[in-house]
Write a structure and sequence with these properties.
Length: about 325
């Protein structure tokens, strides 16, 4: 994907991710690395908990994303347009800015002005503002502010230095690297998501709702555009895009259930959520036949799976999920 000399560099591909075990089926569409030309949507029918759908991109989704990325580049002068990879005159894929250096699109200093604003906002010399983070785990709601003695954010005794643009886009380096502290590991996803969505100047309470996302000029415009173009606004656009307030609407484009019966992956952008009652436009007869041929019951489903376990906060976000999958594999 990132090496133009690779024999498969011009292959048009897309993917979704899933985990199926004794407890649940969990699946999501992902744009953490790129937006592909092949739209993918998901439908999960369950025994007792209804039908879930993720609609994905429309048929011309990649072209809409490309248009918006070019518009953003024209507006702010940053290389959002260079993230567009073309082949034979058509848009093949659009890379996430974490891979910008592969196409000479550097965002090395992009977030720094915003980060400086955040530091000033929560500095004691500018008032008694308090950053409040609901860890949604054992530590509960914790407070934070800038410690003027070391220029770090102190959140419940955990100290976070200024992130760089690379830290904000990747969510797994610098102050966002996880470690042995359970409290810190619970704070990191909420803090990293707040930086990526540029919500730290919009509200002092985090996680916050979608009405606060991407409002600052220094924000992850790739993620903003991905959500704007997706039919239902859902999809993993960065590693912690599953962070949401308690009871808030999911942003990450996932389906999950402990009683799965039928999981359908639709490709092409015309049948998103088609098997769900009242969701999207119904496919024609040929599409229905093709969909039935592709769909197979989930093994071990039928309502006999164990209930979905509580979220392990140390595995929050895409990198955490992949880590958890690797651990399960190697510990067998």
């Amino acid at each position: 994907m990132l090496n133009p000399s690779d024999a498969n560099a011009t292959v048009d591909f897309a993917f979704c991710e899933f985990t199926l075990n004794a407890n649940q089926l969990f699946a999501n569409i992902s744009y953490v690395d790129f937006v592909g030309a092949l739209p993918i949507s998901l439908t999960l029918q369950t025994a007792n908990s209804g039908t879930q759908t993720v609609s994905g991109m429309p048929v011309d989704g990649i072209d809409r994303v490309a248009k918006k990325m070019r518009a953003q580049a024209s507006k702010d002068g940053h290389p959002w347009d260079k993230l567009i990879v073309q082949h034979q005159g058509r848009n093949l894929r659009i890379l996430a800015p974490t891979h910008g250096n592969a196409v000479q699109a550097s965002f090395d200093s992009f977030f720094e002005p915003y980060i400086d604003e955040v530091w000033s906002h929560y500095h004691p010399s500018h008032g008694a503002r308090c950053l409040r983070i609901n860890t949604q785990a054992g530590p509960g709601v914790v407070d934070g502010a800038i410690d003027p003695n070391c220029d770090e954010i102190d959140i419940a005794g955990e100290r976070f230095s200024k992130p760089t643009s690379a830290d904000v886009l990747g969510c797994n380096s610098g102050p966002f690297a996880t470690g042995a502290s359970a409290a810190r590991n619970a704070i990191i996803p909420r803090l990293a998501a707040a930086f990526a969505r540029s919500t730290l100047l919009e509200t002092d309470e985090h996680p916050s709702g979608p009405e606060t996302f991407y409002r600052h000029e220094r924000t992850n415009h790739y993620a903003r555009v991905v959500h704007e173009v997706n039919v239902d606004g859902k999809g993993y656009a960065f590693a912690y895009d599953d962070v949401q307030p308690d009871g808030g609407a999911d942003q990450s484009g996932k389906v999950e259930a402990g009683d799965p019966v039928l999981w359908t992956v639709s490709v092409g952008g015309k049948s998103a959520g088609a098997v769900a009652e009242g969701a999207g436009a119904a496919p024609d007869q040929e599409q229905q036949q093709q969909q039935q041929q592709r769909s197979q019951p989930v093994q071990g489903g039928g309502g006999h799976a164990e209930p979905t376990p509580p979220v392990d906060e140390g595995r929050h976000g895409k990198f955490g999920k992949l880590k958890g999958m690797a651990e399960k594999f190697f510990n067998k």
